[in-house]
């Protein structure tokens, strides 16, 4: 995958396919530690320890529609290529937590990509799911909590064009400085 937003999209789609009604997505950059973290936690079906150990194999999937599951193995590969790791915690009936770390300045760290568009895509594809999105790049974090938005909007759906535009613009502003840093550094990164 070309950028990290596509990994996020894939992992969250797995969470919603596993019955998650709440997905928490956190992207955190700690420049003092040269660290970028992506954490995705859900309240879906979860996995037993045996399946959790096996899903890192690209030839294992919990889906019945295909025979391979590339999401977590590709995310783990991207993390390792950038000097990072992938940790997976899951409990049946309680959900799953994926925590990927990347050396932020590593030449092979993929760019974040269009996080705002990824979140809009997730909202459009999963209107019944709630999302708690946090982008923390050292300044004031950008937080979108669809549970709060639903309470404020009343009968207006999250998928209304004006609501989606507000969400897209809020996230884009929150990650704008990070995207600019990625673009500046991208000239020195290997695209693949």
The largest sheet is: 6 strands, mixed
The averaged pLDDT comes out at 87
Low-pLDDT windows of residues: 63-69, 188-192
CATH superfamily: Histidine kinase-like ATPase, C-terminal domain
Question: Helix/strand/pairing class, anyone?
Answer: alpha+beta
Q: What string, H for helix and E for strand, traces the elements in order?
A: HEEHHEEHEEHH
Distance between termini? 9 Å
Strand content: 15-25%
**Level-1 CATH class name:** Alpha Beta
CATH architecture: 2-Layer Sandwich
Tally of helical runs: 6
State the share of residues found in helices, binned by percent: 25-40%
And the CATH topology? Answer: Heat Shock Protein 90
Number of domains: 1
Strand arrangement across the biggest beta sheet: 3-4-2-1-5-6
Radius of gyration: 16 Å
What's the overall geometry?
globular
Describe this structure in words.
The chain has 6 helices and 6 strands; from the N terminus they run αββααββαββαα. Strands 3-4-2-1-5-6 form a 6-stranded mixed sheet. The chain has a single domain (4-183), classed as Heat Shock Protein 90 (2-Layer Sandwich), CATH 3.30.565.10. The chain is globular, with a radius of gyration of 16 Å. The protein has 192 residues and is an alpha+beta fold. Helix 1 (4-17) packs antiparallel against helix 3.
